[in-house]
Amino acid sequence: MRSLNKTRRLSVFLASALFASFLAGCNANQPIDAGAQGVPSVPSKISAEKLIGRWGVAAYHRDSDRPRTEGEARRQCSNPYVIKAGANGGVIMHLADQADPQELFLKGSSSGSTYLGPAGMAAVAADREIVAISDNSFTIKWVSPDNSSRYGTMVYIRCS
Amino acid sequence: MRIVKLSFMCLLATATWFCHGASAVADPAANADAPVDMQIDDQPGYQPSAEEEQLAGPFERQIVFFRTTEAPGTIVVHTADRYLYLVQPNSRAIRYGIGVGRDGFQWAGIKKIIQKQEWPDWRPPPEMIQRQPYLPRFMAGGPGNPMGARALYIGGTVYRIHGTNQPQTIGHAVSSGCFRLVNADVTDLYDRVPVGTKIVVKQAADL
Questions:
Q1: pTM score
Q2: What 3-state DSSP class applies to A154?
Q3: I need a surface site. Which of A1, A45, B102, B123 has the fewest CB within 10 A?
């Protein structure tokens, strides 16, 4: 009888452990919490030089607005956003809601995502994620849900 | 059209950003008697709560007694009172609380609605870009957009009747000549008003 109880307890323990690992597995696929500490950064696969230049900037919230937003970004080259090289290998840009620009850095992560923000951990609230990049454009999403809801997905089109 | 006050800056501005220069808001406590302007910035991306968007008191949408010679379906704006009326039969009107042009940006005239737009786009004015260089120069329409949920374009002018993501500005002199309503109200008006609707903008009610 005692042996049977032990077997039952072991079964319950194993089932609980299995369920916990299942939940952990689900959680691993959740978006990074911007309020969290971020993740360790690794060298970025994108070089800072790719961001330097003059850019037309526009934003959208709904994916259906992306094509015309790209067109609008292209038309904003009369009032471009200028990204310069920083002294330490980064780029001079603004953080959200900061009037003065500062040197920001491209930060890779183990997931393969690339972030742009202050030196240190990647995917912190101040960062933006570079979700697409080519020679003539790049697209960012803000890590912070608050910034993301306010500024949307931002498209940068290189001005000639 | 009789322009009561229109600054040189207004004349230079383009329709795309005209209604969203640096805004000014009156002190709510003082508004009932003599509106006083004070400075407030646009808040691109800000999404007000349902409680914030629910107006109370005189600025809440309501049916009122309204004596006018204008035909039912006409929009009448009383800038000084911060009300927009949609004329109804039998000396009634639907009255909406609005935000109006700040001092120097108010106007009067008889015009028509020439275009309607759901979730209009927004372009921050140059002075805002200067203050906040990181802002996108164009923001596609959507929640949080300072132009709000709907826009009705007033023909022959650079002005619009539009929504807002700043419900606290209703009842105040805030804009560069446009008329702003909370999103629920501008949506209600949008659904009631066809293109071609006559709009009469007055400084104050006729006595």
A1: 0.64
A2: strand
A3: A1
